[in-house]
Structure formats: C-alpha cells, structure tokens
Amino acid sequence: MSPLKKIIVIFLLTFVCLYIDLPKIVPIKFSVGKLKVDKVVNRYDLDFNYWKFSIQKKFDLVLGLDLAGGSHLVFEADLSGISAEKQKTAIDGVRDVIERRVNLFGVSEPNVQTSSFGGKESIVVELPGVKDTKQAIDIIGKTARLEFVEIEGEGETTTFKPTNLTGADLKSAEVAFDRTSGKPSVSLQFTSDGATKFEELTGRNIKKALPILLDEQLISAPIVQEKISGGNAQISGNFSMEEAKNMAIELNAGALPVPVTLVEQRTVGATLGAESVEKSIKAGLVGLMVVLAFMILSYGKLGLIADIALVVFGIITLALYKLIPVTLTLPGIAGFLLSVGMAVDSNILIFERFKEEKLKRPYADALEVSFGRAWDSIRDANIATLVTAFILANPLDWNFLHTSGPVRGFAITLALGIGISLFTGIVVSRNLLRVFVKETKENNKI
Amino acid sequence: MYLVISLLVICLGAFSFLKWGFRVGVDFTGGSVIEYKFRDKILSDELTKVIESSEIKISSIQISEEGNYIVKFPPLNDEEKQKINTALTEKLKDGFEEMRFENVGPSVGPELVRKTVVALLASAGIILLWVAYQFKSVKFGLSAVLAMFHDSLVLLGAVAFLGHFFGAEVDFLFVTAMLTILSFSVHDTIVVYDRIRESQKKTGGEIIDLANSAVTQTMVRSLNNSFTIIFMLVALVLLGGSTVKWFAVALLIGTISGTYSSPFVAVPILVTWDELEKKMKRKQR
Question: What fold does the segment set B2-24+108-284 form as a domain?
Fold first, then answer.
C-alpha cells in the first residue's frame, strides 16, 4: 500500500472515531450573515442486525464515581469465627449477597468485588449516582440473620435456645397479608431440608411460642398451633407495608454469612464531579494548544505533521475509551493528559535525529533513516513505561497490588495512551511525512 | 559535580522530611473529610463553632480554590456524622451542600503502604532486568535504577517541603504520581543509553567520550519532550481544580527531576563505575 493510501485509511478511521467521540446530542447553532442554522444532530449508537448477527454498542463515556458522583464503600468481613478452609467460600458468599442487595437498589452498573490483603478480607462496593448513601450502607451492611429459637424454662427465667433452622434454610420470602388481621406480613418458603427441620421443630413445640429473630431482634413470637409440614410459614407482627417489604428484600437477598463493618467510604456529589470534568477539559485544551504551538515553533512544517498526528491521537484515544469502555476517573483524565504530553515524544526523537541525518544524506533518505534509528529508543523507553503502567493497572487482580480506585484508572489511560501514541507517532506521522516529502520533491522538479 | 547538586537537593529534602515530616492524608492515617459548599459566605471560625457545637472535634479546616470548605475529622461513625449535619442544618437551614464525604478507617493505611512498596519494588526490579537485558550490562540497569531512586527521593523531599509551606499531602494520588515518575525517569535514561550503545557499536571508544557526546546529542530532545509534558501539567496545575492540583505538581517535580537525572545522574554513575572497574582491572594486573 502506498503511503497516500495508508493516509486515506487512517483518516477514514479517524472520522469513524470522531463520530464515536461526539456527544449524544450535538447542537449546531451559528449564523453567517442572513444564513441561520439552528439544528440538533443526534449521534446514533451502533445497532446492527443482519441475519443472525447483531452488534449493539452504546457510544457513551463511562464516568467514574469521582466525576459522575456516587459512593465507593469498603466493608471488612469479620472471619474470626470461620475455619481457614471455609473462608474463601464465606467471603464469596458475602459478595454474592451484597451483590443481590445492591441490585435490588436499582442503581446503574454497580460494582461489587472482593479484595484480600494481609489476612484481611474486604468487599468493595461502588454505587454510581446514589444519593442516599446512608440508606445504602444500612441495607448492604445488615447481617439479616434469621433465626428460629425455642423457649427454654418457664415463667420469668426463660431463655432463647438456638435451633438448627436459620435463614440458610430459606428458599424465598415475600410480602403477604395476614388472613385474620389483614395486616402486612412476610410469608416464608423453606427448602426441602428446611421444611423437614421446620416440621420437626413445630412438632416439638405445639402450644408453645417459637420466636423468630432477625439480627438478634425479636420480630415475632407466634404460638405454634400444630405441626406444620410442607415448608410454608408466615411471620406476622405489627409491621407497616414498608417494613414488611424491606424485611422480605433482606431475607430474599439472603443472610450475610459473616458480619461486615464499613471501613472506608468516599462519596462525591454530582455537582463536584461536573465541576471537575469542566476544569479538566479546560486544562486539557489549554495544554494541548500550547503543545501544538510549541511543536510548530520548534520544528516548523514537521511540527505541523506531528500536530496532525497528535490530534488523530486524541480522537482515536477518546473513541477507544468509549469502545472498551474505560471508566474515566479524575486521575484517569490526568493520565490521558500526561500521555498527550508524551505522545509527541516519538516525533521529537525522530525530528531531532532527522536534523543530524539531514546533513549526511538526501532529505527523503534522512527521514527514513531517522525513523529506523529512533525506533530502538522509542521501543525500549516505552516498554519501561508500559511495565510500570501494567503494575499499577494490575489487570490480573493480584492481591498484593492495588486492586481498585484511582491508581488503576490512571494507569489504564496512561497505558492506552502510550500504545496509541506509538501508532500515531510512528505510523501516522511517518506516512504523512512520506506523502509530504513526495509532494515537495515533485514541486522542486518544476 | 552534578552529583553534588543532586546530593544537595536530596539533603534539603531529607532535612524537610526530618524537620517537618510528611503531611499525611486520610488515605494513610484514617479519618474523615467533608467538603461543603455554602450559599452564603461564612468565616472559617464561624463554621468551626457551628460544627463543634455538635461536640465533634475538627482536626483541620481549609478553603479550597473553589471557595468550598474542606473539613477534616478523626474517623466518624454514622451517629457523629448525623450530629454534624443536624448542627449545620439548625444554623444554616438549607444554605449548605455536602459535596464530598470520605471516611477511611485506620486499618486501610498500612495496607496501602505495603501495596505501594510492593509496586515500587516490582517496577524497579522489572525495569532493572529489562535495561540490563537490553544493554547487556548490569552497569546500565543499576545506574538507571539509581537515577530512578534519585528522582523518588527528590520528589519525597519536595513533598515534605511543600507540605510544610503549602499544605501538600501525601495521599493515594501522590503514590500514583511517584510510580509514574519512576517510569518517566527511566524513559529518558534509556534514550541516552541507547545513543551510547549505538555509537559504541559504530565507532567504539571510551565510555566517557561516548557518554559525553550522547548526552549532547539527546539534550534537545530531552528538553523538548519534557517541555511538552510540562505544558500539559502546568495547565493541569493552574486550571485542573484542587483535587488534582498536588497530583499534577508531584508529576511536574518528578518530570523535571527525571529530565535532569538522566544526563546528570545516571550517566555520571555509569561513567564513574566504568572507570572504577578499569582501575580495578589495572591493579589486578
């Protein structure tokens, strides 16, 4: 393929990326003399259906908690009562339960993951756009341990005696209405195992109370009328509709196998996030302008070509953020801006080399030689940066490294930036230069 | 000669560190940060009074560039947080908005420190191996890593200094900045080394002469590249808002130190080492 063709391909690619980069709705409003344009252009998401193939992709930027607003919560699990070999199962259980509870919350794209370090197990929960953090924390952290207990002793010296029937034997729970009082209650359905236990338990306690405890709080102490088989039961008490509903949610979502405590919380309001986005964009644009100007001032026409490559770099990078998608955080933006500064490095290396080679050989040859010679440095140097970015991004989720948060966002954008800058700094600007050199040669002939 | 300048800067940093220590953020110590935005102007003394009327001690209070108040507390529990809110609502009604709330338990810090040290050592180790392998010599690898540590020390000293005078904090982002600088420092060093290697193959000769010409040849490139990065970072420091300000400053210091350290720390170490090696060999004969 000739350089010119390559350039055309690259620009086509860039235009596709530019389209992806557009915000969802682009208002176009300007007036030239009498001509007034006031239009809104919609950018359509990819929705491609052909026979059995279907590709759908939303081209929206995914913003992190610090930009979109939301909560980042870390819960530490207390595994003291659990034997070493069962800890893994227990912590996975905690994660599953929390995940289910979070999903009941109805936030978009919540993220629940485990992290273990130095013998401590914790659960990281990310809730974008949640306003009432306190309520979220309450629901997530609730143990929701359901127990049925027997009453031992008589008169005033009664004590609760735990039984083997717990929330683990529960299949489902839902809101129902008490047939006699019409008040909201919660109906329970046990697993087959639970049903057997329940049958035995009720058989043993006819005409006695069988208290039900939720998180060690007495919620109901029904008197057993008869032996109940079949595994269905009802908890009635003086509940409001809301209380019954919440209880059903908690029971359904399952009991946390171990208690958890909140050790870290970061909540960012949506306004602060929006301000940060605005400022970063401004800083980025100003920085970019200065870099563009600097390149032209230092290298003239060559600088202009580097600038074109840099703009292509920006467009492709942004499109990739949307396609992968990369969750953009504030440090992530900083990583991107830093990579803009570094992206021209390969060009600078080549151009400086070119200045030397130009004295030794003809223009076009000098250019090719400079690209070849500079490549070694560019490769070695960028691999070193990529190594660090790799360690910071920790894509394999090694527990001895950072597993979440700002560090990762930064590293991912930095690594992507380096990768793409290698492409734009070398492939794009090299082909641009080849075309450019050819043109000048032909002009010189005339 | 240049090593002396570096030593001076590092000593200044060490002095700052010993005298004032770091201003460590809640990420490491544990504690709470709440950022408030107020509709009407309020003095910090007033705000302190209002908040402390809830019997909760404030550890520090400062105004951000945006005019918001950033108030720090020891770790808060739910109840205490509620108390503060009640106190503020009583006094200011709805004239305030909670922009940000961070609460970090005391157990998080040590974990962070350990993970950071692991990440630091891992990157340094891999870079050392990579450079040593690429240039087929431990000399190159080790002097590059030493230059890298030089930059880390400069940055640590600088943050202790800035912490005392301007309130810069060592937090999660600072750690990220430091790790990035490691790679940036090596990035530059490799470019110089590459030049030495190339001319070694072509013309051969003493490392000291090769090194001198390599430094001269790559100087403009080094400076220009740093300039572009510095432009971006300065824009971020000035316009990027308070959250990333110190992060950008740390990167800025690191970039400058990284640019300086390649020709003036890594190369001199390499040359000195090479000469020492030769002297040893001569003595053995």
Answer: Multidrug efflux transporter AcrB transmembrane fold (1.20.1640)
What is the per-residue pLDDT across A208-254, written as a single tens digit (0 to 9) for each? 888 887 777 777 777 787 788 888 888 777 778 877 877 777 676 66
Give buried/exposed letters for B244-263 (b at 16+ CB in 10 A, else e).
bbbbbbbbbbbbbbbbbbbb
Cβ-based contacts of A267 with chain B (< 8 Å): 100-102
Pairing of strands B69-73, B60-63: antiparallel
Map out the domains of chain B as residue ranges.
2-24+108-284, 31-104
CA separation for the pair A45, A60 (Å, rounded): 9
Question: Does the CA dihedral A165-A169-A175-A179 come out positive or negative?
Answer: negative
Among B99, B172, B187, the residue with its CB nearest the CB of A384 is B187
Chain B residues in contact with A269 (beta carbon < 8 A): 97-100
Instruction: Verify whether the Cβ–Cβ distance A407 to B104 is below 8 Å.
Output: no
Residues of B in contact with A265 (CB under 8 A): 101-104
Chain segment A116-135, per-residue pLDDT in tens:
766 678 888 888 877 777 77
Say which CATH class A70-143+259-267 falls into. Answer: alpha beta
pLDDT for the residue numbered A117: 65
- CB spacing of A267 vs B100 below 8 angstroms: yes
- CB-CB under 8 Å, B244 with A330: yes
CB A175, CB A248: distance < 8 Å: yes
CB-based contact, A392 to chain B, within 8 Å: yes
Put simply, the answer to whether B231 touches A352 (Cβ < 8 Å) is: no
Q: What pLDDT is attached to residue B21? A: 67
B196: nearest CA partner in chain A: A377
> What residues does each domain of chain A span?
70-143+259-267, 146-253, 269-445
Q: What average pLDDT does this structure show over A65-82? A: 80
B-chain residues within 8 Å CB-CB of A376?
Answer: 194, 198
* Nearest Cα to Cα of residue A362 among A296, A443, A440, A300: A440
pLDDT tens for B196-237 read 888 877 777 777 777 778 888 788 888 888 888 888 888 888
The reported pLDDT for the residue numbered A446 is: 44
B171 by DSSP, 3-state: which?
coil
Residue A280 contacts B where some CB pair is shorter than 8 Å:
yes
CATH of domain B31-104: 3.30.70.3220
- The answer to whether A70-143+259-267 and A269-445 have equal CATH topology is no
A42 with A23: CB under 8 angstroms? no
ipTM above 0.90, yes or no: no
B4 to chain A, minimum CA–CA distance in Å? 27
**What residue of B is the nearest CA neighbor of A297?**
B224
List chain B residues with CB under 8 Å of A75. Answer: none
**What is the CATH class of A146-253?**
alpha beta
Single out the residue of A354, A396, A390 nearest to residue A372, CA to CA.
A354
For the segment(s) A269-445, the CATH number from 1.20.1640.10, 1.20.1440.20, 3.50.50.60, 2.40.50.140 is: 1.20.1640.10
Closest alpha carbon to A59 in A320, A380, A408: A320
- Report the C-alpha gap between A37 and A380 in whole angstroms: 51
Please report the residues numbered 63 through 92 in chain A whose beta carbons come closer than 8 angstroms to any beta carbon of chain B: 66, 74, 76
Are the Cβ atoms of B190 and A340 closer than 8 angstroms? no
- Chain B CB contacts of A119 under 8 Å are none
What's the pLDDT tens digit per position in A407-429? 777 788 888 888 888 888 778 88
For residue B248, is pLDDT > 80? Answer: yes
